[in-house]
Amino acid sequence: MAEPGGLPVIAAKSQPGLFAGTAAGKQAAQLCEQEGYLRKLGTETRGKTTIDICAISEKGLAFLLGQVNPRPILEVFVQSLESRQGQFAELLGSAQASQRYLEELKETVHKALEHFRQARPESTDRLQTGPHGGGNGNGVHKAEKKTPNRAAILLDQLRLWHGSGALGDCPLPRLFTGIRSEDGPWTVGQFHDLLRSLHEERKIYLHPWTGPLYEMPEPSVALLIGHEVAYYASLRQVGTGL
Questions:
Q1: Rounded distance, CA 91 to CA 31, Å?
Q2: Same domain, 147 and 231
Q3: Whole-number pLDDT of residue 28
Q4: What is the residue-wise DSSP string for 174-212?
Q5: What is the DSSP string of 115-154?
Q6: % the chain with pLDDT above 70
Q7: Mean pLDDT of the chain
Q8: What's 205's domain CATH number?
Q9: 183-235 pLDDT per residue, tens
Q10: Which residues contact 46 (CB under 8 A, 6 or more apart)?
């Protein structure tokens, strides 16, 4: 009664069963099967022997309750429930540990990507305040004039990608290489800033990496957007409003 999932009819040395592996136990098992007190759930192979997996039938349950005091039966049920409760507690603890591991892994990935983003060969401040800044003398005007040009270069690179007949969206490392070849030394940070800006202006789509993180080529060029790691870009369709 305490094993509705069934057990082998005959017990082995290292495995429990419904009946002992003695001559009397085998005789009792045969009688219960003949009387319909057991229902067969399946079979199990032990070496060259096939063992029946059985549970108590409704007829067997009625026979049992008519023959014994209900107290021992209830005690067996309580023991079985306590055992299952312990197993569920272990499973729950394992699931919670896995959840904590995933959260810690996500945080580690976030920190790693931020580290790659901040490890720039040159500072954005130098672009704005360097000795070659133009306009009003502090370099800000030059930076503001250059941003639209770089945005146009990035969008042109995406148009070239889509126009080449390439399948899928453009990987960010491929896009980064293309715009650097057109406009000199971009940093990863400047590239990420422009991607965010064009994404917010609804001019491009940013698509996530869906495979295992350890298989990602050139992870330093990937961009963290919300809780996703963006690794591909594409142009938004003109005139759709999407």
A1: 39
A2: yes
A3: 92
A4: HHHHHHHHHHS---HHHHHHHHHHHHHTTSEEEEE--S-
A5: HHHH--SS-HHHHHHSTT--TTTTSHHHHHHHHHHHHHHH
A6: 83
A7: 77
A8: 1.10.10
A9: 667 788 888 988 988 888 888 889 999 888 888 888 888 988 877 889 999 99
A10: 12
Number of domains in the chain: 2
Single-letter amino acid, residue 189: G
Q: Which of 16, 38, 68 is the last residue of a domain?
A: 68
Largest CA distance in the chain: 104
**Based on the domain organization, do 147 and 229 belong to the same domain?**
yes
Residue 38 CB burial class (10 angstroms; 0-12, 13-18, ≥19): buried
Positive or negative: CA dihedral 143, 148, 152, 154:
positive
Note whether 72 and 65 are within 8 A (CB): no
The predicted model scores a pTM of 0.39
Residue 151: what residue type? A
The domain in which residue 13 lies consists of 7-68
3-state helix, strand, coil in the chain (%, to 5): 55, 15, 30
CA distance linking residue 123 with residue 140, whole number of Å: 14
Distance CA 212, CA 7 (A): 40
Please tell me whether residues 143 and 54 are part of one structural domain: no
Q: What is residue 47's predicted lDDT score, i.e. its pLDDT?
A: 75
69-118 pLDDT, tens digit per residue, is: 777 777 777 777 777 777 777 788 788 888 877 777 777 777 777 776 66
User: Do 67 and 35 contact (CB within 8 A), yes or no?
Assistant: no
Residue 241: band (very low, low, confident or very high) from pLDDT cuts 50, 70, 90: very low
Domain annotation covers residue 50: yes
